[in-house]
Amino acid sequence: MKSKYFFILLLLLPAQFVLGQPERVVGTWEGKLNVGIELRIVFHIKQQADGSLKSTADSPDQSAFGLKCDTTVLSGNELNIQMIDLGASFTGKMIDDSTIEGVFTQGSDLPLTLKKVEKVSERKRPQTPKPPFTYKSEDVIYHNADKSLQYGATITIPEGKGPFPAAVLITGSGPQDRDETILGHKPFAIIADHLTRNGYIILRVDDRGVGKSTGDFGQSTSEDFAKDVSNSIDYLLTRPETDKKKLGMIGHSEGGMIAPMVAVARKDIDFIVLLAGPGVRITELMEEQNAAILRSMGISDSAVTEAKSLFRRIVNVIQSSADSLSALQQASVVMENWKATKSEAILSELGLADSNKRSEHVNQLVQQLHGTWFRYFINFNPRPYLEQLRCKVLALNGSKDIQVISSQNLPGIEAALKRSKAKAILVKELPGLNHLFQDCNKCTVDEYGQLEETFSPFALQEIINWMNKNVK
What we know:
With about 475 residues, the chain is of the alpha/beta class. It has three domains: about 20-115, Calycin beta-barrel core domain (Lipocalin, Beta Barrel); about 135-280 and about 380-470, Alpha/Beta hydrolase fold, catalytic domain (Rossmann fold, 3-Layer(aba) Sandwich); about 280-375, no CATH class. About 30% of the residues lie in helices and about 25% in strands. It contains twelve helices and 17 strands. The chain has helices spanning about 185-195, 220-240, 255-265, 280-295, 300-320, 325-340, 345-350, 355-370, 370-380, 385, 405-420, 455-470, and strands at about 25-35, 40-45, 55-60, 65-70, 70-75, 80-85, 90-95, 100-105, 110-115, 135-145, 150-155, 165-170, 200-205, 240-250, 270-275, 390-400, 425-430. A nine-stranded antiparallel β-sheet has the order 4-3-2-1-9-8-7-6-5, with no helix packed on it. Helix 5 (about 300-320) packs antiparallel against helix 6 (about 325-340) and helix 5 packs across helix 8 (about 355-370). The longest helix has 20 residues, at about 300-320. The protein is globular and about 70 Å long. The two termini are about 30 Å apart.
């Protein structure tokens, strides 16, 4: 679950420039924004025939390219760039011909230094599979029953005579492409590659509203996504290569919440694999998640305790509010009442000493928690679904995961499964792995993009070993 200090905001980012001497800025500029994780921002600037500048921007770590840049105002070396559609702006000063220092604003102010480069830096991702493959890889399009939704996906099929066991990969929270791309990592491409080489059909699918899939992601809930996954299972059933008695799902994070929902609703699911899936109420999970992320940032235990209390109170009023305006008003009162009883040291450590920062924090929380998806998600309890499972279940969680805490969620999953009719149950903590199942060092959210490893080979082998034993 891609969560945050009280939610790290992953932003889609564009920009544009014009200077008094426009030739100085023609070219490619690269910078890095720290939004809890480090995101590369790239501006491509060209000079037009009339001397004006036109730019496009990329956020390569979010797979966003050719982003629209609107207006630019120059006063000496001072730049002001407006990105209207995204509600964003950049204000910077050209220090020399190779450096622009400034502030990027989108909800909050973030420092951004741009360097002129000949070539955009590349993140090393040695595990990402590249063709030619030893199996069939096919990009496909299919629809739901009434043709109101289209799904874009990639299906990989082993060489040889089928039928083969088959599984759908289910992404975590937030709009994701079929590879679950994050910070240049493509974990689902790697999982699909390894499993297909071991004799499994794997279907990985763009989330609704992403890539080749249609639909409105922003107005959808986890329940809608479960219907999408069920439609993908139906597609697998149309493929002659599929062993219809060996159908399964592999879900990461929120995908590990959705897989049991689908399995309970159908009678043809043979197995599910839960990768960092929740085992407790999401409100409880989020509270501990925020605490773990704060600790990873060096926040003291006393400040973390106070932050947990604040988070709990604000979530409660937002959940009970009829609309976003009343949620904002009530949450603001909660924030100020909380602030009045806290020391300056605690407020400063949490970045909440300034009234504007407190207001910004409340606004961000209300905006996120009052959305369609989050209102469903935050009220979700996975236990009833886990208790109704009848299929085979593998549940894995990294010991260093600070988003879905293994010590909290694995016991929750295990306890629920003991009350179920699930088979071949294995619930296991994998040492040293983070939320993305990377072997981590600092084990912070910010480290995700810094690590070359995309998905632990040890974790891959755990999945393959269990599937070979219990599915084939």
